[in-house]
Design goal:
Layout lengths: L48 H4 L8 E2 L8 E7 L13 H5 E9 L2 E4 L12 E6 L10 E10 L13 E5 L11 E2 L10 E6 L13 E7 L2 H7 L11 E5 L13 E4 L2 E8 L10 E5 H16 L3
Parallel strand pairs: 8-13
Antiparallel strand pairs: 1-10, 2-3, 2-5, 3-4, 4-7, 5-6, 6-7, 9-10, 9-12, 10-11, 11-14, 12-13, 13-14
The chain binds arginine.
């Protein structure tokens, strides 16, 4: 993990178009080492002494549909056109590309790096109404339009935010989250993270996990990332817990503060490294972009 971001968001690869015969990139998820197996059975992480010494790198507890009615899993296909339920065995691990959050019936907020670079040409579908990717729960929604922030910079991760317009999602247990106001004073304290991304034992999870993290103040985060001058500013929020953080595969997913969307998972130096918080695109900063982008599409422009 040399760079801030692991394979899924390797800098420099963004905006390069795939060669036709390029093999599918190594899946970010690795079933063999997943904390949860296909049936959602949790493997005892402390069965083996060596496992116990791992940093608790990501989440700590399964989340229910009720806790996260807005959670999305974005699936990416290089050639295939559709996602069908039930999914083929192990498919979730290959196809889950990123998290996302339902913010209106037909809008998913996610990270720009999830849909940039070679992923620009991928067919994507959004799965909602599920907290277990290996079973047939929920439904896939077609992506009608991918809209990355115009000024997303794959090198610095600036403006790492994007909207996906999907078929409208009306379904039991599925509900959009409200966004934090642009005056987000008071978003200090603890917030929650959700995702299917990499866990402390190296693989990702078929089950949606959540954890609590503390929001950092900007000055402290600037110091923590002083080796990346200029990257920490009022457009991002930093957060982590004593041993919890988001990680690869959680990108695009939500940072939730008092039932409102505070941030979008973007990057970090490794995962759950002490003194290296996760960095999130700050929703309050992008409120205007989000609102106007949704409104202009709604008017058919
Ligand atoms: N870029 C990663 C992804 O594509 C997310 C990394 C978040 N890292 C962190 N330490 N919080 O899934």
């Amino acid at each position: 993990m040399g760079l801030a971001l692991l394979s899924s968001c390797a800098a420099g690869r963004d905006y390069s178009w795939p060669k036709f015969d390029e093999p599918d990139e190594e899946p970010i998820n690795n079933l063999a080492t997943s904390l949860y197996d296909e049936d959602g059975r949790i493997e005892d992480p402390c069965r083996d002494e060596n496992d116990c010494s791992y940093v608790h790198s990501v989440h700590n507890a399964p989340a229910s549909q009720q806790m996260a009615p807005w959670q999305a899993s974005i699936w990416a296909y290089k050639y295939q056109r559709t996602s069908k339920l039930p999914v083929e065995q192990g498919d979730w691990a290959k196809r889950h590309r990123c998290g996302g959050t339902l913010i209106a019936r037909e809008w998913i907020l996610t990270a720009a790096h999830c849909i940039a670079g070679k992923y620009r040409n991928y067919t994507m579908t959004v799965r909602l109404g599920s907290t277990k990717l290996s079973d047939r729960s929920g439904r896939f929604y077609r992506v009608l339009k991918k809209i990355p922030h115009k000024y997303y910079d794959s090198r610095t991760k600036a403006n790492d935010i994007a909207l996906l317009q999907i078929e409208p999602a009306y379904r039991n247990g599925v509900r959009p989250i409200s966004l934090i106001g642009s005056n987000q004073a008071g978003a200090n304290g603890s917030a929650n993270i959700f995702g299917y991304g990499k866990t402390r034992n190296g693989g990702s999870s078929a089950i949606l996990l959540w954890a609590s993290v503390d929001v950092w103040n900007m000055g402290a985060c600037q110091q923590a990332y002083s080796h990346y001058p200029g990257r920490i500013n009022s457009s991002v929020i930093c957060a982590n817990g004593p041993s919890t953080d988001t990680c690869q595969g959680d990108s695009g997913g939500p940072l939730v503060f008092r039932n409102k969307l505070l941030g979008v998972v973007s990057w970090g130096d490794g995962c759950a490294q002490p003194g290296r918080p996760g960095v999130y695109a700050k929703v309050a900063h992008y409120r205007n972009w989000i609102d106007t982008t949704m409104a202009s599409r709604a008017r058919g422009r």
